[in-house]
Structures are given as structure tokens and as C-alpha cells.
Amino acid sequence: MELKTKNIGKTFSGVNVLRNVDFDLKPGEVHALVGENGAGKSTFVKILSGVYTPTEGKIFLDEKNIDITSPIAAQKNGVSLIHQEPQSFSHLSVAENIFMGHMDGNNLSRVKWQEINKQSNEILESIGLKIDPKKIMEGLSIADQQMIEIAGALSKNSKILIMDEPTSPLTPNEVGKLFEIVNKLKSNGMAIIFISHRLEEIRQISDRVTIFRDGDLITTKNINEVSNEEIIKFMIGRNIEETEVKDNQFLKNDEYVLNVKNLSLSKKFSDISFNLKKGEILGFAGLVGAGRTEVAKSIFGAEKFDDGEIIYNGKSIINNSPNEAINQGFAYVPEDRKQMGIFGPVAVEDNITSAVPKDISNKLGLINSKIVSSITNDYIKKFNIILTSGRQLIEELSGGNQQKCIISKWLLSKPKVLILDEPTRGVDVGVKSEMYEIINQLAEQGTAIILISSELPEILSLSHRIIVMREGKITKILENKEATQENIMSYAIN
Fold it and tell me: Are 279 and 251 in contact (CB under 8 A)?
């Protein structure tokens, strides 16, 4: 099935977010979409999948003009969307999730469960997933949930599959498994739209790449005819400078802000010991599940450790809650942006100022809206946050702009220790570059930073020292000068 669009556009509240998009997708190809956060690519695929209706333009399937007015209409036309975060029903079985919305029978009592389970098993086996279709979804890995969404698309006889940042929550091994499935689907004639910020993945899996910028489709290229540098320049209109580890005046002194001694939490990590200087960026590397996030949460008071000691500015402390940690001078930008980082149905202004209630209210506790707007506007300008106004709901912003809001919120609290857990996950190269600059500036101003990242180039380009963890233990602490991707991975695996 061949898909084409002509002059597709979308307007929200008088603002053009997508303009005149002419696009084509061929059977048996993987077509990548790239662009900065807010460039229009997510809006475009939401139109194709029926989440949004276009303000103007037409969609064609096999040269036939069609109207996709809802996700159901998209599915009936053979178009399925695999979300970045799986949209599964955790209390239902694998088979029920696969066939959700199109089971035979008028009610559950008339569903032919034996046939449903059999068909589910056949579909799962076709994509190489060995899992019992009767198994309840709760407790399955993100990767397995994603595969089951793909199985659901196959159960609907989808011919076009849209994958929105499917690799962002996956381990390297899981990414490899996903790509095997993508290649199998491709060889069977399925057309796939693949959205990612990871250029090396795009180069590995895609045939063509289309680049969006500021709501416009800039160009479409065969992937083997364009370099990563050219893709980036098309995306952001400028070259990105390489980030290098920057020393600062604070690192010359042995002024330790934080000393962690023999920290342990049952079944999660044990005997974690390290120190952190003022102005230092201390990277934490390791595979997913190594215990890095759990250590960070324990320091921040979001989890209670069983044993060990945390010494902050020379004094032993126990953060019994995040509020206590904040009052001590700690801040934590969490990995899970949507669940722990933002208040979704709340204005940007209120999100950014939520960590400093005393700074925005009078003696009676009443919030001063003028102060809120003033503070927020300063950070909007400082971090180039793209939005319509400070009263816009934060959930309406792109992932990268949401992340800038979260960082703004914590910087307002003037932290002495800033914990960044996967701060650039799901953001484009332009936003990454901006965030790297912010992180380096904070270190130069004396902020002690713990940086958790699964992207080794990021760890290597920012961290003065790197702690490698495996299965809840520290396996090595490396100086930046001696660290490479190869030796970091060797300590993370062996």
C-alpha cells in the first residue's frame, strides 16, 4: 500500500504548526522522520493516524483520496500507530490486548477464546516473540509491551506502521530485537514510518529520511546519500559544535559537597561509595536495571536506603522525603518526564514555579501572578522554550520543551546538588546541544551534578569522572581521560 499526502497543513488557535507537506511512503520501505522537537513531525503522524484532522490538504492510499477522521478510521484504512510509551491494558491478557476492539462476538461471553489465543500465538511467533498469550500484561517489560502493540497492528491487517520514538525506552539488545522485527515486516511488504532522534539508528534501519523544520518539510533523501552532519544542518539550520569536557576553578580544590558511603538498598544496589566535588559533573553509566536511578532516588529521598551514610557539606543527613532534600539544596530531574516531571493539565508557568512556592506568594500565602509570569518569562527566553504563552498547558509542548521547563523549575530552587536522570531522552540534537551548554554553565557556577545517561557519547562529553554500575554495584570509577565507550561497556557487562 502506497501512501501520499498533498499540501497537508495544521493550525492550532491560529498558529500554523504544519504547512504544505507533500510526502510519500512506499510498500516495503522504512521511511524515517527527523526534526527538532516542535518541528511538526509528531503532528504529521497524528494526522496520518487519525488523532488530528488536517486543516488543509489531502491523503491518498494507492492513489485514492481518503478521509482519516479518527484512529478507528486510520486502522480501517490499514494505518496503525505504535506509541513511544505502550498504550496497553495492564489488567488484561496479551491476547486481549492484541485483539482489543475487534474480537468476534457481541460480548465477552461469545468470544471464541481458544481461537483468539491461537491466532495471538501465531502472530507473536511470526515476529519472534515467545510469550504466553494468556499471560496478564502487568509486569511485562516495555520492550515486550511494544512488540505486543506491533502484534495488535498485524491482527488488524495493517499495511502501514507508524513507530514514534520506539527505541527511547529500550536497551541496546532490545533495540536489536526490534530492528529484526522491523526488517521482517519490511520484507513482507509493510510500509513503516520510523521517528527517532538517534541518527545512527536511522542510518541502520531506514531507506529514506524526511527532515522537518519549523512546521515545514525541508527535504527527503535516500539515507545513503546524506551524512549525519547534513541531516543535522537541515534540521536546525546550523552546525552543532562538538561538546568537550570543561574544567573549572572548583575542581582544583578538594571541596566535596557530597560523600556517599556504603549505601545499600535490598535487591536494588549495595555498597555504593563515591564523592562529588563542587562544580563537578559525575557521570553514571551502566545498562538499564544496573541500579543507577535507584541510587539517585535514595539520595533525593524518593526511596529509603537500608544501610550506609550520606554526608552533605560535612554533615551526615537522611533525606526522608523529596521535600527534605529540596530544602537541603538537592534537585532531581527524573527519567520519567510525564509521570514524575510535569503536572500535565497545568500551565507552563505553574509547572516552572511549583518548586519555589515561597518566592511567588505573599505573607498570606497568596500567589502573585505577576511574579509568576515574570519569573517564567525569564526562563522561557533563557532556554528558548517554544510555546504560545506561559498559560499554555505543559502537556501540549513537545518533549524537548517540556524537559526545558522541568530543568527551569529546579534551577529556580538554586540547588547545590543537581541530579539529572536521562535528561536528553527523546529530545533532538539541537535541544541536546542547548542542554549540554546549560549543564556546563551550571558546573562552572559551582553546582555539583550527578548525570545518569545511557548514551555513552553524552557521558564522555560532559563528565569529569564516570562511575560504571552493574547489577546494583559499582564496578569502576574512571577519570574522563582514561574513559572510552569500549572500556565503559566492558565494566558495565563483565
Answer: yes
